[in-house]
Amino acid sequence: MFSHIKDLQFEAKPDGPDAAFARRLQEILGGKWGEMTVANQYLYQGWNCRLPGKYKDLLLDVGTEEMGHVEMIATMITRLLENAPLSLQEAADDNPMVAAIYGGSNPAHFIHGGGGALPTDSNGVPWNAAFITASGNLMADFQLNVTAEAQGRLQVARLFNMTDDPGVKQMLRFLLARDTMHQNMWMAAIEQLKQDGLEEMPVPDAFTDSQEFTKEYSYTYLDFSPGQDAAEGRWASGPTPDGKSEFTYDHSPRAHAPEPMLAPGDPRLYGTNPGMAQGVVNKVKSKVT
To answer: Where is the signal peptide, in residue numbers (predicted)?
Structure first.
């Protein structure tokens, strides 16, 4: 259960209004890699976690923190929209710069949100719960969480270079710092899973009843590109990260099965079947003769 604290984790106050940047800031609120995604992702991973103790606490702690980041960004967006012009005429009466900012604003901020933040990305597309993953496998989830934090840090860093507002930049610095911690934290959690003997790879790397598959497919890099540049990569030779084998390199991958020949479909489904093509050929031959 959550208990709302009125104070923010960090100040979210711009030095001035900027409706156009408020629109851009929506991406790290309601975009695919935004705070709404990671907050819900970590919380659901925590609620679904079957291991009581440190792993469940980790997920729920950081999910709760990310919910605080949602509030911070929503507050910043709302403040960026304060005193923003509501019409082009109103903007033009001020100065050309304000008019340009008006042109880059999101009308939905005012029509739908009444001058407040929305659960959408920077294009106004609603946030989608399909963005979150909670698989029940901690190794698989933690690896995705590293990716989520990397993408979030990337977007925050890009937004940092899109504004000159000192107040906005200060909040973005804080978010970038916390995302740096979270990315390192998930990588440490992956190491902890290995140390605790809970996970090696997310799901078994191969089934133990077939050593042939393990040898031929599990550790061979298949190069489908011209040249052999990929052979220089760490993934083409040397010991594998799981410590179980050596990478091998195959520059001429071969097919392991013949061309598929599909049986005719059920005629009640009105598909185009192989026999129909032969029927067309026969009709053409009969007309020619």
So the answer is: none
4 is in an annotated binding site: no
Mean pLDDT, rounded, for 140-144: 96
Extract long-range pairs of 220-225: CB within 8 Å, 24+ residues apart. Answer: 220/247, 220/248, 220/249, 220/250, 221/247, 221/248, 221/249, 221/250, 222/250, 222/253, 223/249, 223/250, 223/251, 223/253, 224/253
Q: pLDDT confidence of 59, banded at 50, 70, 90? A: very high
Residue 57 pLDDT: 96
Asked if residue 223 belongs to a known ligand binding site, the reply is no
In order of 9, 57, 65, 71, the CA distances from 4 in angstroms are: 12, 18, 12, 11
Query: Residue 71 annotated as binding?
Result: no
Domains of the chain, earliest start first: 19-195 (1.20.1260.10), 211-250 (no CATH)
Is 225 among the annotated ligand-binding positions? yes
149 belongs to an annotated ligand binding site? yes
Query: 112 among the known binding-site residues?
Result: no
Tell me whether residue 227 is annotated as binding: yes
